[in-house]
Amino acid sequence: MAGGAYGGAETFFEDLAAAFARAGVRQRAVIRPAPAREAKLTAAGIAVDTLPFGGPLDLYTPWRLRRIAAAERPDVVLGWMNRACRVLPRGPFARIGRLGGYYDLKYYRRCDALICNTRDIRDYVIRAGWPAARAHYIPNFCPALPEPALPRASFGTPAAARILLILARLEETKGIDIAIAALRRIPDAVLWIAGEGGLRDALQRQTVDDGVAARVRFLGWRADRGALLKAADAVLVPSRHEPFGNVIVNAWVHDVPVVAAASEGPRALIEHGSDGLLVPVGDAAALADAVSALLARPDARERLIAGGRAKAAAEYSETAVVRGYLEVFRALADRR
Predict the structure, then answer these.
(1) Span 4-54, pLDDT tens digits
(2) pLDDT digits (tens, 9 = 90+) for 246-300
(3) Which of 312, 219, 316 is nearest to 257 (CA)?
């Protein structure tokens, strides 16, 4: 996995590797240098190598991957998105690419099969010419994290305030600017934004321009997502573009209602009014109205929490997702 230090796809890589370890799968992880990730994987009992995963002039990474594969003699090599799949080693093992977005399939030419985390992404790769028999849909899961809720007064939050939470990278596609604009219409709420990215300065300026700076907290990237979720009154997913939406399943698992923009992933995950609320993409007023209505109706909030909890257990459990991956692994390894 050659992703960055932060991100939902990277976090799910860590969660899945730990789940494989709990299921008794012997594995070796090869990642870009990221001390916190290496420590987390090592603590789960996983052997870890770090490589640069540089550009075309990086000859060391492909050479070292070949040496690792020759030493390990794996049944399966799983590449996590573009940069990793581009350099998958060749050998007498199955090579699988895992996609969490609508990526260019040129990066997956070395793969024997693809695992897509939404049905829509699977349909996309098939439309792009990938054989349907070698394209598999397996969703993400999110573990229930045994962390106590952060005190509601954390980060200078008034005790009576309603806490709205965003867990996302600070980038254009995540629509955080829309949530900040919506906050003007939700006067009793404080917005916690947990994430890092290139738009932090611009978003902070927006909070001043919109007159809500006193009610927005920029928390940086946080490892205690369970504690944040348990403290929140609602989770917001205002993304303009979101292939899956790990945070939605996270919220369901931790009994927090979700209000999301109806981008690709959220509209596939959420049944509006049953396990979450959907609003038009890019519509700050609609987002504010939905959140205000939710906060004003405890019965509606409890109904969404119960619906999300049931859906997470039925469709997005760790057991079901790990079983799905292992079924694909075994079938391809046997075929090899």
Answers:
(1) 888 889 999 999 999 999 999 999 999 999 999 999 999 999 999 999 999
(2) 999 999 999 999 999 999 999 999 999 999 999 999 999 999 999 999 999 999 9
(3) 312
Q: Who's near 281: CB < 8 A, 6+ residues apart?
A: 175, 239, 240, 261, 262, 263
Bridge partners, residue 164, by sequence: 191, 234
Grouping H, G, I as helix, E, B as strand and the rest as coil, residue 121 is helix
Instruction: Tell me the pTM.
Output: 0.89
Map out the domains of the chain as residue ranges.
8-141+317-335, 154-315
- Looking at the domain covering 154-315, what would its CATH class be? alpha beta
Domains 8-141+317-335 and 154-315 belong to one CATH topology: yes
Q: Which fold has domain 8-141+317-335?
A: Rossmann fold (3.40.50)
CA gap 133, 113 in Å, rounded: 8
CA 12/CA 253 separation, integer angstroms: 14
Q: Are 179 and 164 in contact (CB under 8 A)?
A: yes
Q: Which two tokens stand for residue 83?
A: 């940069």
